Amino acid sequence: MNEAAAVDIAHTGPGTLAGRWLRRFWQPVYRSLDLEKGRPVRLLTLGEHYTLYRGESGTAFLLQDRCPHRQTQLSLGWVVGEEISCFYHGWQFEGGGQCTLQPAEKASFAAKVRIASYPIVEYLGLVFAYLGKGEAPEFPRHPELENADADISVHTHLVPCNYFQRLENDLDELHVHFVHAVTTERIGLDEMPEISVRETEYGIRREGVRSGEGLNVTRVAHFHMPNMSMVDLPPSPGHQYWTVTASWRVPQDDTSMTTFAIRLKRAEGGAGAARKIANAREIEPSSAAVSEQVLAGKLRVQDLAADYPGLFQVQDNVALAGQGRIAERSRDRLGQSDKGVILLRRIYERELGLLAAGRAPKRWPRPQAALDLAVTNVRELAELAPAQGKRR
Predict the structure, then answer these.
(1) What's the half-sphere exposure (Cβ side, CA atoms, 13 Å) at 50?
(2) Cα–Cα distance between 41 and 65 in angstroms, integer?
(3) Cβ–Cβ < 8 Å for 29, 258
(4) Pair 171, 344: CB distance under 8 Å
(5) Is the link from the previous residue into 226 a cis peptide, with omega within 30 of 0?
(6) Which domains does the chain have, with CATH numbers?
(7) Which of 10, 146, 247, 341 has the fewest Cβ atoms nearer than 10 Å?
């Protein structure tokens, strides 16, 4: 089946259809533990730069990137209490965007100057922002992550291609048996699934049905529109157990994106211990650097050690960027195993078409109850197989 995109899905900068749609949802933009008090950072998200800072109280604020005086980056400046002061001429702004101080100007001028500010929510180790127009929608919470008896590991890594290629990968379970064969063969996940997908109130439910024999378990994924996937995750070099991960695929620009992921991790403190939320350990060498070496022909992905912590990331990165930094989808020949990809493209085309026509897209509310997953917590391999055998 050849599915050529009828609308521009790939470009997400200001004013683009996909950019306007993605800005209607809360998006993660940074890891909470990385944002230090008094040290502003400059972000690139959806083709635009922003300044993120944490005030003296610990509250995070997100403002437009540039001071309106002479367009210097606000992230170069200083944090003063809960406000940020421009490095160039000392214009100062509170977290809501109002200018409060202009040292070389008359006092009345500051009241006339306001810059764009954006709502912020910190949740399970990530900083989320609403970058759209008007009032922000209700922030979606995820009981599958909140209520699990597990610690939280917060991951972030760069993917060197267009965001939509990464979204399509989230709807493509078959690739696991080829791109990640080193790992799946080692743990005995060797039965290709029968894929079924359906549109839901929140996005797409994907199921990869297997027999349940050994580690050939039926995996479930819930894709939340427009760009988050929650899935049963098999073992890898970084974690030797089945678990659950939620991943947001957020465009930096049109040819690169950042994955922000929350993964359930075995609780270190034992029963009754306080839950820990911590950043994942940095991978050295980084998966981004290794991916570029592979894409440049200086290294083969097959040469990477099976226990390299960034192996999964590199394998996905090169399979996706190997399509081109922005894929030409009109050339694709899709088959029955691509049901998820086909459905995702159709939904995006439909929703962006509604937006282009001036009509309201679907709301996609997140259900309050926990969604079904084969793995609802961190599970040992030996625990999981018998449970799956009984289930099917």
Answers:
(1) 26
(2) 10
(3) no
(4) yes
(5) yes
(6) 32-120 (2.102.10.10), 143-391 (3.90.380)
(7) 146
- The structure tokens 């965001």 sit at 163
